[in-house]
Amino acid sequence: MSEVPAAVVGEADLHAHSTVSDGTESPARLMEQAAAAGLWGVALTDHDSTSGWAEAAAAVPETGVVLIPGMELSTREGFSSVHMLAYLVDPLDEGLLAETARIRESRITRAEEIVRRIGRDYELSWEDVLEQTAVGTTIGRPHIADALVARGHAATRSAAFAGILHPRSGYAQPHYAPDPLTGVRLIRAAGGVPVLAHPGTRGAEQLIPPARLARLVEAGLFGLEVDHPENRADAKPRLRALADRFGLAVTGSSDYHGAGKPNRLGESRTAPDVVERLIAEARGSAPVMP
Ligand code: AMP
Ligand code: ZN
Ligand code: FE
Ligand code: FE
């Protein structure tokens, strides 16, 4: 919990991945890149894991960049994956630890199944995927994509997603994830601040229905990640209107994955007053100041 509220004097990029999940840069390197991008602060938000926090925190003094420890919690509504950013949670909260362990476990069995299916048509083994990850990495489709690239079946991660990993290719398989409402409750119970990640990637016609959003707000949703490179242009004004209507904060972030995606660190940012409110609401942990 932040005893002394941080004076937020600059913009922050509130969504970035490291090698702890499917980013290609280490947490320390990410902090260096945040400094190079001229950011006041950056949130490390690896998928379903807080394992990168310590390394990123250790890089705060020399980089001079504020670290907002976070996580991107996987949730699911029916067949759609819904990502929930979780800022400043207590990393030792038992409810969150149990749920994220379950998700990471299911991500492994799911990835093994996808690889088994692809392996019927292409030369690809589980060992190929493990070669693309470190011990403890939250495994996801990007690591399968990297293995496909290493095997020469795709030119880039993005090409693998557009081809072999596309749902219509028939190898897809979901992993376990709680529903979004449970996700918001878990994050608040862990003292964290929940923000709905990239809610406009499917365009204006497929936004979250207001009644469903209302339930998330009631459970403690803090904001909507409106300024995200993959939110469709037609969705953004609608998302801003929803944020206004429900009193939600509007955040901006890059969803940086290093070399794994075209998104550049700092390309979308969150205003200082929003970052300040987010930090003030947190009870689980504090930002790491230089
Ligand atoms: P998964 O965690 O297995 O559901 O995979 C989702 C991750 O894959 C997300 O974090 C995305 O950033 C990444 N991803 C999705 N589509 C693409 C793409 N076209 N190119 C690169 N990465 C992608
Ligand atoms: Zn990712
Ligand atoms: Fe996401
Ligand atoms: Fe992400």
Can you offer a commentary on this structure?
- The protein contains eleven helices and seven strands.
- Helices cover 37% and strands 14% of the residues.
- It has helices spanning 27-36, 53-58, 60-63, 94-119, 126-130, 141-150, 157-162, 180-189, 210-218, 235-246, 272-281; strands spanning 12-16, 41-44, 66-77, 80-87, 193-196, 223-227, 249-252.
- It has a seven-stranded mixed beta sheet.
- It has a domain at 110-169: DNA polymerase, domain 1 (Orthogonal Bundle), CATH 1.10.150.650.
- The chain is of the alpha/beta class and 290 residues long.
- The radius of gyration is 18 Å and the shape is globular.
- It starts with 11 loop residues before the first strand and ends in a 9-residue tail after the last helix.
- Helix 1 (27-36) links the parallel strand 1 (12-16) and strand 2 (41-44).
- The structure holds adenosine monophosphate, zinc ion and fe (iii) ion (FE) (2 copies).
- Residues 72, 83, 197-198 line the site of one fe (iii) ion.
* N-to-C CA distance: 17 Å
Low-confidence stretches: none
Give the CATH level 1 class of the domain at 110-169. Answer: Mainly Alpha
Q: Output the helix-strand order.
A: EHEHHEEHHHHHEHEHEH
Mean pLDDT: 96
Work out the helicity level: 25-40%
Topology diagram in text:
Layout: E1 12-16, H1 27-36, E2 41-44, H2 53-58, H3 60-63, E3 66-77, E4 80-87, H4 94-119, H5 126-130, H6 141-150, H7 157-162, H8 180-189, E5 193-196, H9 210-218, E6 223-227, H10 235-246, E7 249-252, H11 272-281
Parallel strand pairs: 1-2, 2-3, 5-6, 6-7
Antiparallel strand pairs: 3-4, 4-5
One fe (iii) ion is lined by residues 72, 83, 197-198.
